[in-house]
UniProtKB/TrEMBL annotation:
InterPro entries: GH. It comes from Streptomyces olindensis. This is Cellulase family glycosylhydrolase.
């Protein structure tokens, strides 16, 4: 699929290529969180979106709830689809482009299953043929409904679907079939240049024998999405919130993802990163945001950065993990937090060309198997070696051991030297 000027920041010939980078936020409604879909209020949504646009961000990622969209396996609610289309239109009116996630089975520690997949109706959402076909039809329906929206970036299958594997056992081969089926359905009605993507949380990259694999993330869909969270592997607590391991985590996730791609030019999207308390204390959050964006922007092939999230979860809502109440750029009353100002200022710096991407001509070789994938995550030997080099001022790329002697591949990535762990 050719990624056109729309999906790369609407650049035109002669424009500074730095403007191709996209910066946005994952939209969490201020009033009622995602339960707001039960009684969608366009005025409230527009207020939230205007606040986001005022930060100078250019896109949002939005989420409807799967049980509300598809309450029966063979019934997709037109009213719910219309709500989603209305939100996309409101975002466009605010000057924001939109990525729409489709099958919302997991959001912020809660799982959302339609009743037809649970209890004595239980169907494995990854392997049951009729359940997979139903999800594919949902993606087709959303694509058909949104195809003519000029501000649509594309469709994503859903948010971190690999969170559902505990209750839906699946093999890597079955995951591949599931992703291929839904991505094909998502593309069916999308205009040329719009993206069809999928996402996974960090276990796909760091989890030994996790059924969602790095290869699936880096080779299926039109861009690779990464969600480098500082709580994965207890990273921030292990190394400290101001450590190089934390401040370069999104950069590292981007470079790791590039190593698994077959196409050296495949873009990587830092689609979720944020500053959850207490992992990142509130006083450190602005500097964390600045460092995260600046360091990620230094990676060649970066599609963009999308912060998690727009608005704090209101504490009147119960039973969220503590960190979920603190992740917003805006608090639950709609007031911009210091991290919002820091992010806006840093995005403006990057757009002004102050933190340009630069080639990486030296790569650190990653040797692992599906059963030893954790070496590349926080606490792992490879992760610690890469971040130690970065703290010393080096800018290493990542290359898989099986490609370390492939001269043509290394040349395509601009890699001149490879370094192996002792």
């Amino acid at each position: 699929m050719v990624i056109d000027a729309f999906t790369q920041g609407k650049t035109r010939p002669g424009e500074d290529p730095i403007s191709t980078l996209r910066f946005g936020v994952n939209y969490t409604p201020r009033r009622g969180w995602f339960h707001a879909w039960h009684d969608f209020d366009p005025a409230h949504a527009r207020e939230d979106l205007d606040q986001i646009a005022a930060l100078g961000l250019d896109h949002v990622r939005v989420f409807h709830l799967w049980p509300l969209l598809q309450p029966n396996r063979t019934f997709i609610r037109p009213a719910a689809v219309d709500q989603l289309a209305r939100l996309v239109d409101l975002a466009g009116e605010a000057g924001l482009d939109v990525l729409v996630d489709g099958v919302q089975g997991h959001l912020s520690s809660f799982d959302f299953y339609p009743a037809w997949t649970r209890s004595w109706h239980h169907r494995n959402v990854f392997t049951d043929p009729e359940a997979v076909a139903a999800q594919a039809e949902l993606m087709r329906t959303l694509g058909r409904a949104l195809a003519d929206r000029p501000h649509l970036i594309g469709l994503q299958l859903g948010n971190e679907l690999n969170n559902l594997v505990e209750h839906n056992p699946v093999t890597p081969a079955e995951v591949d079939h599931y992703l291929d089926t839904l991505l094909a359905a998502a593309r069916e009605h999308l205009p040329e240049g719009r993206l069809a993507t999928h996402s996974a949380y960090d276990a796909a990259w760091y989890g030994d024998d996790h059924p969602f694999t790095p290869e699936a993330s880096a080779r299926k869909g039109d861009v690779t999405t990464v969600h480098p969270w500082v709580f994965s592997g207890d990273c921030a607590r292990r190394y400290g919130p101001r450590s190089p391991q934390v401040l370069h985590l999104a950069e590292y996730g981007t470079e790791l993802a590039k190593a698994y791609a077959e196409d050296p030019a495949r873009p990587v999207w830092v689609q979720e990163t944020g500053a959850p308390e207490p992992h990142i204390p509130a006083a450190d959050a602005p500097d964390f945001a600045r460092a995260t964006v600046r360091n990620a922007a230094g990676c060649e092939g970066l599609w963009g950065v999308t912060w998690w999230c727009s608005h704090d979860v209101d504490r009147s809502l119960a039973d969220y993990p503590e960190l979920e109440y603190t992740l917003g750029l805006f608090d639950s009353r709609g007031r911009a937090k210091p991290i919002a100002t820091a992010l806006a200022e840093t995005v403006a710096e990057v757009r002004a060309g102050l933190h340009p991407a630069r080639p990486r001509d030296t790569a650190l070789v990653l040797e692992c198997t599906p059963s030893t994938r954790s070496v590349s995550g926080p606490g792992g030997a490879y992760f610690e070696a890469w971040t130690a080099l970065r703290a010393e001022g080096a800018r290493p790329a990542v290359v898989l051991a099986e490609r370390a002697d492939d001269a043509a591949y290394l040349a395509a990535r601009g890699i001149k030297d490879v370094v192996r762990l002792p």
